[in-house]
Specification:
alpha/beta, eight-stranded mixed beta sheet, three-stranded mixed beta sheet, 11 strands, 30% helix
Length: 248
């Protein structure tokens, strides 16, 4: 995938069956990026269901309520972490699917902006195949707002809710595009974000926090993963490989 289009390169898909722990899961994605830039691994798609985590942006740590926000996370059973990317606090748990797409790329910086739009549409396409009315773009009041968030509505909920948040890490020689799809059990995510954003003193609309199964009841993480891989397969060749091969 040079810049934004996968082209003809084979993408190795690895399914991580068990979380490595909130902190280790984040670190491992960056380690894979380091290995891609040196040529140790090729284009790789890592899929996993994370431990309950709230990932804060760097700006959040400078707010006077940050320590209280961290405690609010723990009180709700979520581990607070600070990610290297920007944005605001985002929450995820085992009812979400994390998608890390890692590629070696000699000109990684050149395609950084276009990647957000490309992947936003790819995820929206996958969700549409499941009956979600999905689109790309920020919705008013969403948590961790982003121009290329994926939101949706559906028979179970006519209102717009944020379903996918994306972030990117670009280094000389490679990039990591990480996305979180909220699929099941949105109530704990809405609760921890409500408490966390209150502690940080940030305004948002809790009605924008939802999950795919709020919109299309019965859809689970396995169904979203299958839809995503089917959508990817329309863009590039896929090859499944065991997670153990990555040496986590």
């Amino acid at each position: 995938m040079h810049h934004a289009d996968p082209g003809t390169r084979t993408l190795t898909v690895v399914r991580q069956e068990v979380s490595l722990g909130a902190g280790r899961d984040l670190e491992f994605g960056l380690e894979l990026l380091g290995r891609a830039r040196t040529g140790d691994i090729g284009p790789t798609l890592r899929l996993y269901r994370p431990a309950p985590t709230v990932a804060f942006g760097q700006r959040d740590t400078r707010l006077p309520g940050f320590e209280a926000a961290e405690q609010a996370c723990r009180d709700n059973g979520f581990e607070p972490l600070v990610r290297r990317a920007g944005g605001r606090a985002a929450a995820y748990h085992q009812g979400t699917l994390v998608v890390d797409h890692i590629e070696p790329d000699a000109d990684a910086i050149a395609g950084s902006k276009s990647r957000f739009g490309y992947f936003g549409e790819l995820f929206a396409d996958a969700l549409r195949s499941l009956g979600v009315h999905a689109a790309v773009g920020e919705i008013p009041g969403e948590y961790c707002p982003g121009e290329f968030s994926v939101h949706g509505s559906g028979p179970g909920n006519p209102g717009q809710v944020k379903l996918v948040g994306t972030a990117q890490r670009v280094v000389a020689g490679g990039w990591l595009f990480s996305s979180v799809i909220v699929v099941e059990n949105s109530a704990p995510i809405r609760k921890v974000l409500t408490d966390t954003y209150a502690a940080l003193g940030l305004d948002w609309d809790p009605a924008t926090a939802g999950a795919v199964d709020d919109l299309v009841p019965g859809v689970d993480v396995a169904a979203v993963e299958a839809a995503l891989l089917a959508t990817y397969a329309g863009h590039t060749a896929l090859e499944m490989a065991p997670f153990s091969g990555l040496g986590a």
